[in-house]
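COURSE: Structural Biology Practicum
ASSIGNMENT: Worksheet 4, Part C
STUDENT ID: 0417
INSTRUCTIONS: Below are two proteins. For each, the amino acid sequence is given first, followed by its structure token string. Answer the questions at the end about the second protein only.

PROTEIN I
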Amino acid sequence: MQILDHMALLGPLDLAAAGAILIAWFVISWMIEHAGAKRPSVTVLMSERRRDWMKVFVTRDPRIFDSQILASLRQGTSFFASTCLLAVGGVLALVSNTEPLRGVAAEVTEMAVPVVIFQLKLAFVAIFLTNAFLKFVWANRVFGYCAVMMAAVPNDPRDPIAYPRAAQAAELNIRAAINFNRGLRAMYFALAALAWLLGPIALMISTVLVVWVVWSREFASLPRSILLQEKA
């Protein structure tokens, strides 16, 4: 049986729920990264703080403090990348072993559901986790680019290339942070996708909950209020 034949086993409600979580994922990401000046997200506010960081960096001596911060950021991306890789391996191992899936199918539903349905749903989770892994790896690499650019910033603030290079380092730092945040969102939605094992209604509910959590942390959280006060 081919992949299209497998997908044909999913009902219209399943396909609608799967499409809804994908749309929600893209829409909330776009809202966060393209928030307007009247209602900026935490991501947008932190981008400005990263630019301020690099401006201060030019005149700071010694720069050990900055290198420690950047090393901490890279360690965070490495940790989450490793976590995603382990999670992907676990999901793929479960997909390839049908016996545990038969037990799951018997526990979560009284209907005779083919094991391949659960394999498709778990593969959907693996897609989110794989995306998160790739984002974390790329974020780690761009933080590395940022580290090199920071090292190339002259110690003398009067040097004409000091602030332009610091600005480049800031933009690299921002791009790395954006990819890190994308990886985190993909992990959130991977957790929501797990609810599909309980059915399409459960997937829709979990999607709404995850969207609310992500939105509230970016647009209605205490850290955002603190950043806005600092901005003022």
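PROTEIN II
(use this one for the questions)
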Amino acid sequence: MVGLVGARTGLPVLAAGGVGGGADVRAALTAGATAVLVGTLLLRADESGASRTHREALADPRRDRTVVTRAFTGRPARGLRNDFIDRYEADAPLGYPALHHLTRPLRRAAAQAGDADRLHLWAGTGWRAARAAPAAEIIAELARPL
């Protein structure tokens, strides 16, 4: 798809989503992407602004899937499935930013208390590849040729 978009538009194409490591980066570049954006792979980096609770949840083997939810903010986003999502997703309104502001104190308290089941655990589908290391090291691995 990346190559088709680039050929059709003649514009630079930035690939993003589903990037779980260097092989995915190389595949996107080979397909014609000008650059590849990563997010989740850097959430456990030493320099990440993610809470300790969020970082630990990303490494927790009991967390077995991501889901798209609007339960925390009223706007769809992908995150690790937890009790809050299971309980409130079905009734969550599309109400961003109001819902985001209403749940902020709960999310802040959950992060401070180490309660990953009451915290938004944003993560893409390649979250298992995220690791604790300096960001420069993670990026260097992504850029390494095969």
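ANSWER KEY EXCERPT:
Q1: The longest helix spans residues 98-113.
Q2: Helices lie at 2-9, 22-30, 52-59, 83-88, 98-113, 135-143.
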